[in-house]
Design goal:
The chain is α/β, with parallel strands linked by helices. The chain is built from 25 helices and 18 strands. Keywords: Aminoacyl-tRNA synthetase, ATP-binding, Cytoplasm, Ligase, Nucleotide-binding, Protein biosynthesis.
Length: 688
């Protein structure tokens, strides 16, 4: 009898027997099958269970014993979830009424005369065994002398039960195979934190019970990927990102075709398509597998969720182009006949070569430590920073003068730079390889190989870089840190102009003076200067300069002659005010002629009146800007003069020096802002 008809029949039967009391409405959420639209209701059926209290206790102890724990969960804070699940574990229902899966290894003894509907009614007739032959043997002992037929339970095992046997079954268990003895337990399991209990805990319980040991010694749990707004990915929202689409790229039309090929109902389909239009108006650009992998690794520092922004992946794809350009630059400078050195001893190398090898050493050390501690985001960030900010932005820029022309004075430096460049690219590509295997393989194959030893056929089989003690040079790194700080300050001062200008560095200690004198060429090259002069407190303070305090011992000045200065901007404002005065006088004269209000159309009168008001407001704004600029300029000059007096760095407390430096920077930014505002007003006036 169909269930809905049966309900009415049951109600009628209760009424006939006088057992019916009342019927009330009960609001509830009814489950509906998304495909057939049938009402889905729970149905009581006998199930198979596994008692988990003992197994759960062993799995719990395996991970929480501080000194002798057999299992390490990474990140460590998930151990609390492990404890919460296993301390309160219940018996595990392992039977499922599905078409596909591993059959439950249980057989029911059917005797002559049994009715089909009585199948499974008696618990005493069930036989659990490894296979049918073993089941027959056990049933023969139980039902000796009786005629019966064994019928296997049609239920299948829970997916997580089958998956829980994975670490054992792949090595041939339950047979005692060589692979099982050699490779069980394994080292690391990598999976999502959302299935820590459903899969990981079940594998550990079954592994200890059936295999005698934990199936792995470490579990690394990765974050779950969400969309750029932190929402869970859902087909009905249209924010699901297929990794293949990120790798190969796809148009908006292609994304929506995938939705149309799915099974969403019309309402959900409309919402999903609208969501795709908002999230990917231009589709998804082709990023490649390396960029996607690197982005995901970089994201792993984001707690337990990754808010995936495709534009970040696009950024790493563009960074791959930078790697290509770096190798292309190297190949053009190395030449066809270049033979790499068997080892690199930097004692005789130029300063920049010693520095890049030293920071490469640190990058290798930090990357290896980060990988060993499963801090993949830190490892990716370290490798990226070395390639981007140290190799490409600094080292390659510093060695370019060695190769410009064929100057004989740089002959030795050219040779050292070639060797250093090759060593950096060889180690840098191998360091990056686990994160970007495809592009690094392609580029590494293009590098010339050393003739002293045979190189591996593939970068993936080559040795991972290790620290070379003789490369570390703390003195060189300290000097470069000062150079970088000076360059940053000079670039900040010159950011509104690209022209090369002279600069001065005021040093208040002999040590800094010597360092900067020895590395003038590096500073000039990186800061794009026309010249650099190193001065001390006894020298005159440079005039017509903008200034920035690097630290309490070093101040930089950038010449503004031939470029914008406060006085030039003030003069522009004065000229603009004079021009507005002329326009106002001309307009007022025209509006004051006899009969103006009677003869001139009202529309034209209104235009002239609006123009006059606009000129008045512009005049007011320019006067205010000029006054602010004059005031800021006076304060700037006064503060600069005070900070340039002899003994300032030694006599004035560091705290006061920092306050003055901050005030000086604030005034500089204010003057720049006023200058830009004046330029904007001038541009707006031209547009009008």
């Amino acid at each position: 009898m169909p269930r809905f008809i049966a309900r009415n029949a049951v109600a009628e039967a209760l009424k006939k027997k006088g057992l019916w009391k009342d019927a009330k409405t009960n609001e509830m959420r009814i489950g509906v099958c998304s495909r057939t639209k049938d009402v889905v209701e729970p149905m009581m059926k006998p199930q198979w269970y596994i008692k988990c209290s003992g197994m759960g206790k062993e799995a719990l102890d395996a991970a929480i014993r501080d000194e002798n724990s057999m299992l390490e969960i990474i990140p460590r804070h998930y151990t609390a979830d492990w404890k919460r699940w296993l301390e309160n574990i219940r018996d595990w229902c392992v039977s499922r009424q599905l078409w596909w899966g591993h059959r439950v290894p249980a057989w029911y003894a059917v005797f002559d005369g049994d009715m089909p509907e009585d199948f499974g009614a008696s618990d005493e007739r069930w036989v659990v065994a490894r296979n049918q032959e073993e089941a027959h043997a056990l049933a023969g002992q139980t039902f000796e002398g009786m005629k019966f037929q064994l019928v296997q339970d049609p239920d299948v095992l829970d997916t997580w039960f089958s998956s829980g046997l994975f670490p054992l079954s792949v090595f041939g268990w339950p047979d005692d195979t060589e692979d099982l003895r050699a490779f069980y337990p394994t080292s690391v399991l990598e999976t999502g934190h959302d299935i820590l209990f459903f899969w990981v805990a079940r594998m550990v319980m079954l592994g200890i019970t059936l295999g005698g040991n934990v199936p792995f010694t470490k579990v690394y749990l990765h974050p779950m990927i969400r969309d750029a707004h932190g929402r869970k990915m859902s087909k009905s929202l249209g924010n699901v990102i297929d990794p293949v689409d990120v790798i190969n790229g796809i148009s908006l039309e292609g994304l929506q075709e995938k939705l149309l090929d799915g099974n969403l109902d019309p309402g959900e389909l409309a919402i999903a398509m609208e969501g795709q239009v908002k999230a990917f108006p231009n589709g998804i650009a082709e990023c490649g597998a390396d960029a996607l992998r690197f982005a995901l690794l970089s994201y792993t520092a984001q707690s337990d969720k990754i808010n995936l922004d495709i534009q970040r992946v696009v950024g790493y794809r563009q960074w791959c182009n930078k790697l290509w350009n770096a190798v292309r630059f190297a190949m053009s400078r190395l030449g066809d006949e270049y033979l790499p050195p068997s080892n690199a001893s930097p004692d005789m190398f130029p300063f920049c070569c010693q520095w890049i090898l030293s920071v490469l050493n640190k990058a290798i050390s930090k990357t290896v430590l980060s990988l060993e501690s499963y801090e993949f985001s830190d490892a990716a960030t370290t490798v990226y920073a070395w390639w981007q900010y140290q190799l490409c932005d600094i080292f390659i820029e510093l060695i370019k003068p060695y190769f410009s022309g064929n100057d004989s004075k740089f002959a030795a430096e050219r040779g050292f730079a070639r060797d250093t460049l090759w060593v950096c690219l060889d180690n840098g590509l191998r360091l990056l390889h686990p994160f970007m295997p495809f592009v690094t393989e392609e580029l590494w194959q293009r590098l010339p190989s050393s003739c002293d030893h045979k190189r591996a056929d593939s970068i993936m089989t080559s040795e991972y870089p290790s620290v070379v003690e003789c490369w570390t040079n703390e003195r060189v790194e300290s000097e470069m840190n000062l150079i970088e700080a000076i360059v940053r300050s000079l670039r900040s001062l010159a950011k509104e102009s690209r022209e090369r200008r002279p600069a001065y560095v005021l040093c208040r200690t002999v040590v800094d003076w010597e360092v900067i004198c020895n590395h003038q060429m590096e500073i000039e090259s990186l800061a794009n200067l026309s010249s650099l002069m190193v001065i001390n407190e006894k020298d005159d303070v440079p005039t017509k300069c903008v200034v920035s305090v690097v630290n309490e011992k070093v101040t930089v000045y950038l010449k503004l002659e031939g470029s914008h200065s406060a006085e030039i901007d003030l003069e522009k404002i004065r000229k603009k005010i004079d021009d507005i005065n002329l326009q106002q006088e001309k307009l007022l004269k025209m509006m004051s002629v006899a009969g103006y209000s009677e003869k001139v159309p009202e529309k034209i009168q209104q235009v002239n009146a609006d123009k006059l008001e606009s000129l008045r407001k512009e005049m007011l704004s320019l006067r205010e800007a000029g006054q602010h600029m004059e005031s800021s300029n006076r304060q700037h000059e006064k503060l600069l003069k005070m900070m340039s007096v002899a003994g300032y760095g030694e006599k004035v407390p560091e705290k006061i020096q920092q306050v003055n430096a901050d005030k000086l920077e604030s005034l500089r930014k204010e003057m720049l802002s006023l200058r830009e505002a004046g330029q904007h007003m001038e541009s707006s006036n031209r547009c009008e």
